[in-house]
Design brief:
By secondary structure, the protein is α/β, with parallel strands linked by helices. It has helices spanning 31-37, 54-63, 73-77, 93-102, 117-130, 144-154, 173-177, 185-188, 191-194, 196-207, 237-240, 340-354, 362-380, 393-400, and strands at 20-25, 44-50, 68-70, 83-86, 106-110, 134-137, 161-169, 211-219, 263-270, 275-281, 288-295, 298-303, 310-314, 326-329, 386-387. It is built from 14 helices and 15 strands.
């Protein structure tokens, strides 16, 4: 069961303290999180970067003057860092996070936590065994549209939650996920894990429970028919992205291996009885998420997920489609993902130094991976409802106690 409280995340205790020394492993597409963490004199600074790519190392040397730049993880871990941010491709998370935890430093691991439950659980076990603090980068828990809906749920504005639906229109899917390693299931498993981990975590958070059974259908409906492929080693999304890459059937230069689904539909039964569904499509013209949360006394729905979008609330009976009884505007944030990236990194820096409660949760991160993996197994099997493997009770207790061993 997820927690129902919202912690105070004001970052108290950081001012006046020496900067947290941060090592970054992986300075590619998610490198902007490292830039968010580099606040010399403001609480944290990047002092070391490790990447196997010569291009990434050159860019890191320019972005962080004076920092150690290396291709050797052991050299980074031995450089005196206080914390490590793991920003590598997903299949490499465990191989970096576990040695970092064993080195006794706080670890930020980008979501998804890993691409197998075994690796997820090994990361959690390493954190408990070493006492090193573990934080998982589920930035959507800091997105204004999500925190607004979460607040309205917590306030009881729609009664007790009974259903959560999410439709995810991934309008940039062809460029973001089918031209590099994401399209190869040996590196990503599938996009219900890599991309869907965000939304599955939010569904769990809004519903107040974790999936115990998952059923799904899906297909590689569009991108599998495109035979224009190329090896893009050394390239990044910014090198090929364009809104002119339309329609999806006209995409060019896809990854040599494309064997993940581009459309999926998932049903979930949560451990508190809530029913949920998640739909993900990578060839839509628009790019946004639409959540509906239905309770015993009303429902919420967001129309748009960026600043100025609306979260609408209905809590009276209507004879047909009707304007919302109340409307709430999504606030504006500064930086990536509506300000969520900056808030995420600030929370990690505070947690790495001082501990305390966080909006994100390693247990919830593991459960999002579990739901995504089981959904993918259902798709690639016969579409039946499959059980979600539970997490060890001792690990749940350790992280629920705030990683204090209590």
């Amino acid at each position: 069961m997820t927690d129902t409280s919202t912690p105070d995340l004001n970052g108290a205790g950081l001012r006046g303290a020496a900067d947290l020394r941060i090592g970054v492993v992986g300075f590619g597409n998610r490198g902007r999180l490292a830039l968010e963490a580099h606040r010399p004199g403001g609480g944290s600074r990047v002092t070391a970067v490790c990447d196997l790519s010569e291009r990434s190392r050159a860019e890191a040397a320019e972005a962080f003057p004076g920092a150690l730049v290396t291709a050797n993880l052991a050299e980074l871990l031995g450089s005196g860092v206080d914390a490590v941010m793991v920003l590598t491709p997903d299949h490499q998370h465990a191989a970096v996070a576990i040695p970092a935890l064993e080195a006794g430093v706080a670890v930020f691991c980008e979501k998804p936590l890993a691409i197998s439950l075994d690796d997820c659980d090994r990361i959690l076990e390493a954190a408990r065994r070493t006492g090193s603090r573990l934080y998982v980068g589920h930035n959507m828990r800091h997105m204004p549209v999500v925190t607004l809906m979460r607040r309205l749920v917590e306030e009881g504005r729609i009664g007790r939650v009974k259903a959560v639906w999410c439709r995810h229109f991934v309008g940039n899917g062809g460029d973001y996920y089918f031209k590099d390693w994401h399209a190869d299931r040996s590196k990503s498993v599938g996009l219900l894990l890599q991309k869907g981990a965000h939304d599955l975590d939010v569904i769990h958070w809004l519903a107040g429970g974790y999936a115990r059974g998952v059923q799904a259908i899906g297909a590689l409906s569009v991108y599998g028919d495109i035979d224009d492929r190329r090896d893009r080693s050394g390239e990044r999304v910014g090198d090929w992205f364009s809104f002119d890459n339309w329609p999806p059937t006209a995409q060019m230069g896809l990854n040599p291996v494309v064997d993940v689904e581009d459309i999926s539909q998932v049903n979930l039964v949560l451990d508190n009885g809530v029913l949920a569904s998640y739909e993900q499509c990578h060839f839509t013209p628009d790019y946004w998420r639409n959540y509906t949360v239905i309770g015993t006394e009303g429902r919420l729905e967001n129309m748009g997920d960026t600043a100025g979008s609306e979260v609408r609330l209905w809590n009276r009976r209507h004879g047909s489609a009707a304007p919302a009884d109340e409307t709430f505007l999504v606030e504006e944030g500064v930086g990536g993902h509506g300000g969520a990236d900056a808030r995420l990194v600030a929370e990690f820096v505070r947690f790495a130094r001082d501990g305390g409660p966080t909006l994100t949760s390693p247990v919830a991160a593991r459960q999002a991976v579990a739901a995504g993996l089981v959904a993918t197994a259902s798709i690639r099997g016969d579409g039946r409802l499959l059980p979600v493997p539970p997490l060890d009770d001792g690990l749940v207790a350790y992280f629920d106690a705030g990683q204090t061993g209590a």
